[in-house]
Amino acid sequence: MRELKVVGLDVDGTRIICETGDSAEKFVLRTDDRLRAAVRGDRVGSNQTTIDIEVSNVLRPKEIQAKIRAGASVEQIAASAGVAIERVERFAHPVLLERSRAAELATAAHPVLPDGPSVLTLLETISAALVARGLDPEATTWDAWRNEDGRWTVQMAWKAGMSDNVAHFRYSPGAHGGTVTAFDDTASELIDPNFARPLRPLAPVAQLALEEPDTPVEAPGEAPEPAPATKPPRPRKAHPTVPAWEDVLLGVRSSGGQR
């Protein structure tokens, strides 16, 4: 926390003008009840005033830029510190340009594969992988931020259907554009030479039988109708044997006996 020294009062005498030790920045304090309480030595009022002053001065320009360079957004820093977004934006703009430039340079780097750096650049590899999956390589966003070890993490984001996806790479500047290595599984799959396979394998869907079964399905609770009984064939009536004409003349019966 920086120390301020009082310079004087403004024209109307209602505000106190202060400045830093190197006179690089000036500040204005309103003479409200909390400030008067602090001057009188009121502990409650003094504590509250100390907190307010600390919050408004905790973010130095270098601290803002360090947080932005590490990946924080302007809105996140302003909300966590309780200061106006405009104050953070003044110092964040050059660092945001630096991050954008790092992400652009990383797309021209070469992915490191198990057998060495790829001939294709990261942008060429990613574009081919997305096209093979039926996605638009132009509908991507890139970002980068510097880690504590000084190396850059590059993030590529894209949308597939209703889901938002991200992949992270580690970027190392160097000759011929430098190199990038996959930092998570999604990034590994994107730079895999076998990029024709989908990012998320789908489980096979069981085939449903579409043919109707041969046996009829009985409705529950219904007894099957009995098959109609087959009537036995009627026996044919025996026709009487007609004796031959010779038998009649000779008196012989049809059974072969004589009268």
Order of helices and strands: EEEHHHHHEEHEEEEHH
Sketch the major β-sheet: 6 strands, mixed
Structural class estimated from helices and strands: alpha+beta
- Detail the poorly predicted runs: 43-57, 201-205, 252-259
Shape: elongated
Termini gap: 157 Å
Please tally the helical runs, counting DSSP H or I stretches of 4 or more residues.
8
User: What is the radius of gyration computed over CA atoms, rounded to a whole number of angstroms?
Assistant: 48 Å
What is the average of the pLDDT values?
A: 75
Strand content: 15-25%
Instruction: Tell me the helix content.
Output: 25-40%
How many runs of DSSP E, i.e. beta strands? 9
Strand order of the largest sheet: 5-4-9-8-7-6
Helix and strand arrangement:
Layout: E1 4-9, E2 15-20, E3 26-30, H1 33-40, H2 43-57, H3 61-69, H4 74-81, H5 85-107, E4 110-113, E5 116-117, H6 122-132, E6 140-146, E7 152-160, E8 163-172, E9 179-182, H7 185-190, H8 245-250
Parallel strand pairs: 4-9
Antiparallel strand pairs: 1-2, 2-3, 4-5, 6-7, 7-8, 8-9
Helix pairs in contact: 1-2, 3-5, 4-5
In short:
The chain is of the alpha+beta class.
Walkthrough of the structure:
This protein has 259 residues and is α+β, with helices and mostly antiparallel strands. Helices cover 33% and strands 20% of the residues. The protein has 8 helices and 9 strands. The strands form 2 sheets. A 6-stranded mixed beta sheet has the order 5-4-9-8-7-6. The C terminus is likely disordered.
